[in-house]
Predict the 3D structure of the following.
Amino acid sequence: MSSEVLSVQQSYDADRYAAAHGVPTLTLMENAGAGAAREIARRWLPRKTVVLCGPGNNGGDGFVIARHLKAMGWSVRLALLGDVAALKGDAAGMAQKWDGPVEAVTPDVLGDAALVVDALFGAGLSRPLDGTARAVVERLNAADTDVVAIDVPSGLHGDLGKALGDCCIDADLTITFFRKKPAHVLMPGRMLCGDVAVIDIGIADAALSSIRPNIFENTPSLWGRAFPWPGPMGHKYGRGQAVAVSGPAHATGAARLAARGALRAGAGLVSVASPQDAVIVNATALTAIMVKPFDGAAGLASLLQDKRLNAVVIGPGCGVGRGTRDMVAAVLARSAAVVLDADALTSFSQEPATLFGQLREPAVLTPHEGEFARIFPGVLAQSSTRIEAARAAAAMAHCTVLLKGPDSVIAGADGRAAVCTNAPPWLATAGAGDVLAGMITGLLAQGMQSFKAAAAAAWLHGEAARAFGPGLIAEDLPEQLPAVLASLKGVLQN
């Protein structure tokens, strides 16, 4: 499965690349429509179908779809927004190949259709739906009718993943071509698209070498080759030693969740660095995870002098204030890889530049939106997408940033961004982020590069939640990882 995500402009560039290398745009449209028709026929039995065509190339795709569905024996009505005589280019050519009547797009044309194909407007739409188009979309969204959108649901901005205005098709299936667009992976666009099917229309993968995409859907194809599987001659000391820094006695659970995540992610040894007052609490709750006492920032710095401790997560349950800032400074002064989460971030809300001045690779920041707004004030509000915001933050912090949410975004300081699409809603539970931070730490301990470690951990985190299902609590996540990892290994080997 390909993970590249192309902007609207990059998708146009891919079409032009194909045309320049012997695949005419008319052939691309024919392949797109024929492939979409096959995908529709694969998912539904023949039924009364209305194909809504717009005045541009998206409408041209609709003419092809209607022709192929009709040839398969489907009952198809085609309606056009505008006049056939006004169509241009490839769309005009495909309209000429349609041998059935062309009706006008109106709300009434929907009639008793059991399936509607939305080929009104594609990803290039730049203004809100209005007039007849809006009336049709509103009628369709209120009806109990299956909807297939072509390219993107009409009314959805292809790059922003948001409706243009307050009206947009709510599709059951979206069929797009060559590669996904940001609208297919970012919320709320991802929900409006329904299932997304990507159709091969004859554009060679070599087009990507000239386009050079730097947005990806977070799938194993992005980081799978770098995943640190143990070798037959390996041993625990070769798999890194991770440390989770605990808070005081009354706030130790978060660090233990992180430590468990690191251990299940494959770190060879994992320790909880525990303040003296919390040693007994942590020790009585841990078995395979060791406890290492320390006293204040100086004590933590001394503990981390051990070069074998090569990855540290700090923040969960540590408390907000000067003490945590000092401990973060102690951690960042060492050569270990670092994950900063929760209180380690909020503690710098009044002086984020101080934190950024200390950061260096390999490091990963894992804020949710509230924490993000505290250390990157104004960035989210001023950004057109969460991708743009995460990229800006990574550039400011000079390290990898994982902006958590229903469409978590991982951004590297080099401009790469990956969007998570596999997180179920029940992942929104207390402590889940602590486990994620620990999982990233466990992968860093094994030598995985920070961007790929964050992306891999986020994907595994989502899969573990999906495997458990509703009723999930944070403690369940590490226990799902063995099965998820086994499945991942099988996929990567095939």
